[in-house]
Amino acid sequence: MDFIFYFGEVFTLTSMLLLIGGTIGGLIMGATPGLSPTMTVALLIPFTFNMTPVHGLILLGAAYTSTVAGGAVSAILLKIPGAPANIATTLDGNAMARKGEGAKALQLSFISSLIGGIFGVFLLIFLTPVLAKMANSFGYSHTFWLAIIGVTVIGSLEAGSVVKGLLSGCIGMWLATIGFDDIQGVKRFVFHPALGGGVNIIPALIGLFAIPQVITMFAKGRFQTDIKQITVKKHPISQAFREVFSRKRALAIGTSIGSVIGLIPGVGGQIAGLLAYDQAKKFSPEKAKFGTGHSEGVIAAESANNAMVGPSLVPLLTLSIPGSPTAAVLLGGLIIHGIFPGPTLFQDYPEVIWPFINSMLIGQILMCIFGIYIASLAARVAQVPQFIMAAIVLGLAAFGSFAVQQSMGDVYVMVVLGTMMYFLERFGFSAAPLVLGLILGPIAESNFVTGSLISTAQNGPFIYFFTGGLNIVLVSIVILSVGFSIWSEITAKRQET
Amino acid sequence: MKKIIAALAISLIGISGAVKAEYPERPVLLMIPYGAGGATDFQARIATIPAGNDDMLGMPVAIINKPGAGGRVGWNWFANDAEKDGYTMGGYNVPHFIAQSIKGGVDYSTDSFEPIANWGSDPAVFVVGKDSNFNSMEDVVAFAKSNPGKLTFSGAGLFVGHHIAALQIEKAAGVKMLYIPNKSGGAGAMKAVISGEVLAGVNNLSDAFRAQKAGTIKILGVADLERNAFLPDVPTMMEQGLDVDNTSVNFRGVMVPKGTPQAVIDKLAAVVPEMFKHKRVAQKMKAGGSPMKIMNRAEVLDMWAKRQTTLEDLLKGL
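YS: structure for the whole thing
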């Protein structure tokens, strides 16, 4: 219970100002498509050079927490996920916003983020030694199976055709093979110099979600000059709290999946939201409502992606292994002050680490307060005329894609993929499974290839991938997940006939 | 009031006058071909802290990251698209870019760039998990001899410093081991060693130094000509009877594209090494466990040329 004694440091004037500044800034950065948590933290690192280690880490921690949550704003209002972590939020969050429930969706999202986030940080505080062991036991074969679990989700992700979902996922996985493969050392599908590094996930994400909408908005604005304004319903906060707590199943699924996925190095928060969304849907008696603006969808997705923040720091703080790109940047922020993470970190630097972790707890609360305030303003976004909105979104999309690595090539990739998606959407394909394929493809491939390589020095690939407790558990989940999808498809067919 | 306006006007004239005459008149970009937060990025940010001082460049240096394909994306961009006016510098990692240019498939070679100065040298080290039975390179070689192709060891990718060291160790010991390149770079390669996925690994001295402090690994040897100040107790490969020189040492520094005006190169070559020598840089690098080696333009030109020959020789058979 050491952490309680270090709260004093968080409540000093400088710390609080940094915390508030970091949170508000983080929410805004997170809400801007393209400015991912990783980038925000990386941009802030130079500012921490001149601060004390505690102040520097408080700023970085606050920014990390709130950018993850801030991504929900654009996901809900614009259907453009601020970062890969927020993809699942677009599914029901944006549907709610279209029904005029944008304010409610945002409130639900920030409250779920708060609950998930606090749970995650508490795990970090109380269970770090146990969790570190778990994180470390994940090898190449396990990460491969985890990615395959993600793949099984692809088909059932969106209401509509399973086959089209799987096809979209395949396109995504194919896109992921573009670029220079660093394990085999060969170039694949590099038809243009801009593709040498492969399709960067952020520009792809922006393009696939934003461009089809921009085209649709321009088209509508041209032909229907008087579109019916969406009325934005006001939504009392107390009711939002009640709603979140009444959806215990979604909240529990989101929080627990987020925590577990956050722990596993290399998978990160990108798929936590999607897996939680899928499970919440499978276990819900109101399956049919998912995708139409159902509050459970938002709650599961957002509680998952914030629950992942705390545990994602476990491998970093105890083993000095950054489990996610953002954690890698945070590692830089630690060692610049001469603090080397490791098993003895909590004994060596309690005066730095505990205030940092405590500030993440306080940061979650601040994030929720400011987030709800933003919700009351941002919901007006829905009243902006479509053709103006289209121009703003297009500008943001170009800016966000360029900002990732100051590359025009990424902007072209964004535009090409987005235009392609516009036509695919007309044929009933959707963006979320495609992006999931793009994210999971490289994880599955590299872990499979590396695992097979290692297995040649051991007992062969079969034993490497199919034996051992953890492998068997993961393979069972894959089989259950596929089996469940087939079963529910069959029962749905029977009900129809 | 009039006085203030006059003073402002004069100072403005003064500034613009000085600016025209002297490079740099605006912030300078430094392209790093690896992701934010990695060792190269992190060191580049520290090394350029004093850039804005009046006796240095007088302008801040802004880092831009162009990661991908082990640095190939960034260096391809730097060779093809970077402005040749001195406002875009690039970070180099030797032997990485030289080895890649020898293997082909990229748009650059040592002839595409003009080195400015070197700030760091990070030797590759051979690491094993803390519970490993290997306690010296001798143990490793003995195991590899009796189990050809069974000794798995990780590194950050193909044709980077780690891979070069791996090739040199195999060649020197006359053994066949199984090199496992890692998609997520040095950190992922280190994780594989710590969690026991592979039996051993080649990694950066700076990262291994931290991991050893954390008590998760043992360091068996340094692939350099002499022992390192951070690890005075760890013997070199040579000391353990393996003929491995410093070819794999990861040199980090700053360069500009070929075709940059000579006056700009001269100015940078004079100022940048001084910037690296700044007290604050040295202090932050030391705190981060990053070994420094400051070399001027002439020394780097010489080092590049030497690496070119050794690497051509080493990679010929592959």
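YS: worth flagging: The beta strands of chain A are 179-181, 186-188.
IM: good catch. Also Chain A has 23 helices and two strands.
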